[in-house]
Recover the amino acids of this structure.
């Protein structure tokens, strides 16, 4: 229903397309970090450091990346390079956990779903996205392309607020730290806004993609870019 609201609002021009970037910024830099901090602080540290969960999800992510790249490079016999194959693998392996996974899983399964979800976000941010971005530069002319891409990917992780909010929440859980009540009240207000605004924004993005695709010759060239921007 919330995704549909965002879709209809954009299609009916009740929400200007220029405002979608602002909604993304609000969710990514304000609401979602507060939600992840609250979940991390309220989740036992042992659940956040579940070795079997980390191993299973990491293995599946690496298999998805490897299989997608192998199938892509093999299918067109060299006509598709590492850049397109790697970003195709990123689309295949990188779930929209922040904008859709967290709101839906927590709504369906309750707060106990937060711990595993937080673990998967960390793996996707630190491993999956960084690996795919580095692989995208393997067919570049510069022999240091992959290393440079890896540094850029790491920089992207450092400036992304989601891993930091998770880390701070995990630290608060480990040392049993509680924010002062007025501060926690503000964090909770922003955290409560994350799910509805994120789902509303997804609907707006889908509508914008559909509306803008009318004026484009190749729809396939537009949609992956929109999805990658949304996920990263």
């Amino acid at each position: 229903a919330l995704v549909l609201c965002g879709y209809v609002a954009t299609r009916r021009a009740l929400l200007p397309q220029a405002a979608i970037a602002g909604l993304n910024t609000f969710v990514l830099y304000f609401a979602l970090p507060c939600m992840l901090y609250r979940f991390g602080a309220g989740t036992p540290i042992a659940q956040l450091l579940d070795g079997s969960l980390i191993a299973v999800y990491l293995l599946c992510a690496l298999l998805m990346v490897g299989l997608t790249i192998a199938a892509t490079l093999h299918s067109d016999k060299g006509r598709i390079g590492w850049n397109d194959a790697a970003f195709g693998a990123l689309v295949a392996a990188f779930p929209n956990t922040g904008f859709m996974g967290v709101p839906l899983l927590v709504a369906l399964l309750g707060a106990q779903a937060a711990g595993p979800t937080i673990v998967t976000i960390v793996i996707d941010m630190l491993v999956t996205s960084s690996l795919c971005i580095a692989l995208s530069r393997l067919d570049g002319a510069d022999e240091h392309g992959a290393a440079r891409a890896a540094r850029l990917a790491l920089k992207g992780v450092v400036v992304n607020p989601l891993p930091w909010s998770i880390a701070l929440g995990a630290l608060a859980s480990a040392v049993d730290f509680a924010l002062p009540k007025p501060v926690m009240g503000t964090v909770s207000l922003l955290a409560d806004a994350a799910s509805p605004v994120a789902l509303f924004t997804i609907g707006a993005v889908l509508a914008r993609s559909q509306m803008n695709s009318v004026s484009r010759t190749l729809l396939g060239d537009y949609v992956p870019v929109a999805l990658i921007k949304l996920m990263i």
